[in-house]
Amino acid sequence: MDGFTTCPARPSRVLPAANSNPSHKSKYTVPIINRTEKTISLENQIQQWATELGFQQVGITDIDLGENEAYLQKWLDAGYHGSMDYMASHGSKRSRPEELVPGTCRVISLRMDYLTCDTQPLEILASPDKAYISRYTLGRDYHKLIRKRLATLAKHIENQAGHGRYRAFVDSAPVLERAIAERAGLGWIAKNTMLINSEAGSWFFLGEIYTDLPLNATAPQSSKHCGTCTDCLTTCPTDAFIGPFELDARKCISYLTIEHKGSIDPALRPLMGNRIFGCDDCQLVCPWNKFAQLTQCGDFQPRHHLDDAQLVDLFLWDETTYLANTEGSALRRIGFERWLRNLAIALGNAPASEVVLNALQSRADFPSDLVKEHVQWALQQHSKTEPV
Predict the structure, then answer these.
(1) How far apart are CA 238 and CA 263, in angstroms?
(2) Known catalytic residue: 171?
(3) How far apart are CA 293 and CA 277, in angstroms?
(4) C-beta of residue 223 within 8 angstroms of C-beta of residue 19
(5) How far apart are CA 155 and CA 45, in angstroms?
(6) How is 166-181 classified by DSSP, letter by letter?
(7) Full-model pTM
(8) Phi and psi at residue 349, in whole multiples of 5°?
(9) What are the sequence ranges of the domains in the chain?
């Protein structure tokens, strides 16, 4: 298909929000087009095709992200991105779509619900002997699934329009996906930096199609609806929010367990509890998530009972088992070494027991300094109490 490519996956769970004055205007002139019957029909068809492909909502926006560019630079200057060097390594391409994909004048933004029923997140968090895994990664890797559907949608558009170039992204490449979604009318960037939709909460994935086709833009989200609520800020286990709309990723559990490759700050380890991959606390307390919709996609259903797994059982997986059970899952991206690092911390926070201590001892001489360091820390935590 002419001009269509996809990019390698890169999760962006801890991207900053935007709350500053515009500072950049696109150097490209967006064509002024009439709302012809053909164009309007194409826009309506995009909506229909998106629904048929399993997306719950689609919007179209221009490419002026000047407000977000200013906020991103402020966030980077503060060092809140930690070791995520890729956040600063693409210059202005992240906030200027036409620099990333020359000729882009519109972005099609789509969302897809991923919340499944009966995963009992609060009950798992309250069970320190069990592993809490962020709900978005319990099923199959969404990057591949959504990217394939975006490719199909782009092909439909190309066939109908007869021209145009398209490039799809799913949590990948330098893309300000939440800022784009807000401008496309899919929701507002909230105090916890997540995108919230008034009819669907925040339990959804985002995907984008960059195009040079001058489609008519949908109305942007013009207001935020968090009000005076600060539940998401005060519930954060590691106090990672500097304030509303401002997240220090270096303290965020999602960053620590997924993005950060080295040793985790000992002061933060006890605060991580049993969260071994990601964190959903700021979503779990959000009042808007009472409107969250359950996914209709079978691929997002939990696999290998990871929604209710014992920490010890996961810690005792060998690498072959880890690779087998995380095949086709976003869990695979952290690798076996960091999987054990995260689990060692959780076991250090678990109630002392003979089973827990034996499991930790079995990894005491693991051929990785990173794992051994965190196992030793966990054993020291239990040395402060008598095993039961």
Answers:
(1) 16
(2) yes
(3) 23
(4) no
(5) 13
(6) EEEESSBSS--HHHHH
(7) 0.88
(8) -90, -10
(9) 5-118+136-211, 231-279+304-383
Alpha-helical (H) ranges within the chain are 37-52, 66-77, 97-100, 121-125, 142-161, 177-183, 231-235, 253-254, 281-284, 311-315, 319-325, 335-349, 354-362, 369-383
Minimal CA–CA distance to 156: which of 42, 287, 299, 7? 42
Give the number of C-alpha atoms closer than 13 A to the C-alpha of residue 61, restricted to the C-beta side.
27
pLDDT of residue 7: 33
Query: Which regions in the chain score pLDDT beneath 50?
Result: 1-35, 387-388
Rounded Cα distance between 161 and 164, Å, is: 7
Write out the DSSP string of 90-133.
Answer: TTTTTT-HHHHSTT--EEEEEEEE---TT--HHHHHT-TTB-EE
The pLDDT assigned to 200 comes to 97
Q: Cα–Cα distances in Å, from 122 out to 54, 129, 194, 315, 333?
A: 28, 14, 20, 22, 25
Catalytic residue (one of 113, 141, 171, 307):
171
